Amino acid sequence: MRPIIGIIGNQYELEDRYPVHANGVMNSTAIAKVADCIPLIVPSDPDLAPVEDLLEACDGFLLTGGRPNVHPEEYGHAETEAHGAFDRARDNLCLPLVRACVERGQPLLGICRGFQEVNVALGGTLHPEIRELPGRDNHRMPPEGTLAEQFALRHTVSFTPGGPFHRLLGATEVLTNTLHGQGIEEPGARIVIDGRAHDGTPEAIYVEGAKGFALSVQWHPEWNATDDPVSRPLFSAFGDAARAWATGRAAPTLKSA
Question: Considering the entire predicted model, what is its pTM?
Fold first, then answer.
């Protein structure tokens, strides 16, 4: 049996009246077709899916992007209009889940909001609106265009030479999409910024000393993951780590050289 990856879903209301927990098909596709694991959508609410049970049911976790942001109370900031919408149930699930995975060595891959969750879970803070900072670009999704145009590659990310992402992807600079408004202000304890956009925005992080796979990216590698030269090795390595966990072997820890 292939390893099971818990994909953190998001809460929505269909037609503004019917609540659902949902996940983008491209996330499931990347897990099934590239990581070669079984995708399992997890309700983003610890009252429905307690962290302790999820850790036993799944071999790894994909923390997806999502429109709601991590509530600033989680990192000691006051709520403002710039912080946008929130999903407190997802905060209550994902932040302790991140800490548990890091402690156990259970594979974890964070994407966009998931990238931000990993930072906050380990004590970091976030900027509510990157584009308002001096010298920064607008990293948000283009408001118009086709899905392919919105997820198009838009900027470079440079990695630390010899670091985990350089070794994993075989390059010190790659081209990625960008669809986020918030970003890291201060990195949390053990959070190492291993890649930045050309304007200095943190785009790739890992957890120093983690017992297993604990990488996160601010862009969306699930888009075109089967063919993209950056996305494919990232999901493949995540799948390998999940297989190692599932068979009881310690997954290789990606440390800087």
Answer: 0.93
